[in-house]
C-alpha cells in the first residue's frame, strides 16, 4: 500500500484527485453555522474515495504532507477569494498544518505569500496546529505562531487533550482557538468525570481568551451539555459530516 501511495501521490496532486471537503462548525445553541474545517479526500479514479487515515500517515513520513498542506491552503484561499467576489456570506475556514511543516524557518512568510496571491482575507483562514507539534523545536514553533498571528491568521490547537503536553503548551504559545479532542465525547461517562473535565477545560480556555470547539460530537445530550457550559462551537456528525463544496455552500446559505 505504501508503495502504491508513493507511486501515485504526485500524479494525483497534479491531476486534482485531492478534494477539499468542508465540515461545518455550529454554535451549540441556536444552531447557526459559524465556520468550517477543510479536510482532504483522495478521489481516486481506480480506488474510489480514500479516507485520510489511509494516506496522511504515509505522507507525514515521506514529507509529501508539506505539498498536500500547501495545496489545501491554496485551495481554501482561492475559495475564500471567490466567495468574496461573488458576494457570498463569509465564514472562516480552518486548514490543518502538519507538524513537520513547523520545522521550516520561513513558514509564516511562505503561507502569507501563498494566501496573498489569491487576495483572501487573513482573518477568514484559520490554521490548525496539532498538539503533537509542540514536542519538536518549540522556540521555532512559538516564533512561527507569533508571526502568523501578527499577519492576522487565527491559530487553533487541534486534538487538545489527546497528547501529553497540553496544559504546558497553553502557557507558552499564543493561540486563538482550542479544539477539544473527540475522545472526550467517546464511550460512556459513568462517573461523570468526562463532563467535569470538559466543563473546566472550557472555563480555563475562556479565562485564557480562547474560543473552544468541541470535536466529534454526535449526540443531542452532548450538544445540550456543551450549550449549557458556554462552549463556543461544535464540529461533529450531530450537526454535519464533512461535505463537498456545493453542499457546503447550500448549508452556508441556509444556516449561516
Ligand atoms: P482532524 O484534524 O482531527 O479532523 C477531524 C476528523 O474527525 C475528521 O476525520 C472528521 O471527519 C472526523 N469527525 C468529525 N466529526 C465527527 C464525529 O462526530 N464522529 C466521528 N466519528 N468522526 C468525526 P477525517 O476527515 O477522516 O480526517 C482524519 C485526520 O486526517 C484529521 O483529523 C487530520 O489529522 C488529518 N487530515 C485531514 N485532512 C488533512 C489535511 O488537509 N492536512 C493534514 N495535515 N491533515 C489532514
Ligand atoms: Ca484538524
Ligand atoms: Ca482534531
Describe it for me?
- With 256 residues, this protein is α/β, with parallel strands linked by helices.
- The protein has nine helices and nine strands.
- Strands 1, 2, 3, 4, 5, 6, 7, 8 and 9 form a nine-stranded mixed sheet that branches.
- Helix 3 (65-85) packs parallel to helix 4 and helix 4 packs parallel to helix 5 (138-150).
- The longest helix has 21 residues, at 65-85.
- One calcium ion is lined by residues 158-159, 179, 215.
Describe this structure in a few short sentences.
The chain has nine helices and nine strands. It has 256 residues and is α/β, with parallel strands linked by helices. The N and C termini lie far apart (41 Å).
Number of strands: 9
DSSP strand content? 15-25%
Number of helices: 9
Q: Classify the helix fraction into a percent range.
A: 40-55%
Bound molecule types: ligand C2E, calcium ion
What gap, in angstroms, lies between the N and C termini? 41 Å
Can you write the helix and strand succession as a string?
HEEEHHEHEHEHEHEHEH
On the 0 to 100 scale, the average pLDDT is 95
Estimated radius of gyration:
18 Å
Sheet with the most strands, sense and barrel status: 9 strands, mixed
Low-confidence stretches: none
SSE-based structural type: alpha/beta
The coarse silhouette is globular
Amino acid at each position: 500500500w505504501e508503495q502504491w501511495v508513493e507511486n501515485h501521490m504526485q500524479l494525483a496532486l497534479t491531476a486534482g484527485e485531492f478534494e477539499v471537503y468542508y465540515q461545518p462548525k455550529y454554535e451549540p445553541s441556536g444552531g447557526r453555522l459559524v465556520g468550517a474545517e477543510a479536510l482532504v479526500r483522495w478521489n481516486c479514479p481506480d480506488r474510489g474515495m480514500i479516507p485520510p487515515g489511509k494516506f496522511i500517515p504515509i505522507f507525514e513520513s515521506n514529507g509529501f504532507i508539506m505539498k498536500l498542506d500547501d495545496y489545501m491552503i491554496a485551495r481554501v484561499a482561492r475559495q475564500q477569494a471567490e466567495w468574496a467576489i461573488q458576494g457570498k456570506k463569509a465564514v472562516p475556514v480552518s486548514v490543518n498544518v502538519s507538524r513537520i511543516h513547523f520545522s521550516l524557518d520561513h513558514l509564516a512568510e511562505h503561507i502569507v505569500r501563498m494566501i496573498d496571491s489569491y487576495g483572501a482575507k487573513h482573518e477568514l483562514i484559520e490554521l490548525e496546529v496539532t498538539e503533537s507539534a509542540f514536542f519538536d523545536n518549540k522556540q521555532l514553533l512559538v516564533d512561527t505562531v507569533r508571526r502568523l498571528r501578527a499577519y492576522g491568521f487565527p491559530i487553533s490547537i487541534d486534538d487538545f487533550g489527546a497528547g501529553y503536553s497540553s496544559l504546558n503548551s497553553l502557557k507558552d504559545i499564543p493561540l486563538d482557538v482550542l479544539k477539544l479532542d473527540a475522545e472526550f465525547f467517546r464511550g460512556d461517562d459513568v462517573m461523570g468525570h468526562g463532563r467535569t473535565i470538559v466543563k473546566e477545560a472550557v472555563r480555563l480556555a475562556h479565562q485564557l481568551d480562547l474560543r473552544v470547539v468541541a470535536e466529534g460530537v454526535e449526540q443531542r445530550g452532548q450538544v445540550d451539555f456543551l450549550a449549557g457550559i458556554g462552549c463556543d462551537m461544535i464540529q461533529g456528525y450531530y450537526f454535519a459530516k464533512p461535505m463537498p463544496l456545493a453542499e457546503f455552500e447550500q448549508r452556508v446559505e441556509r444556516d449561516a
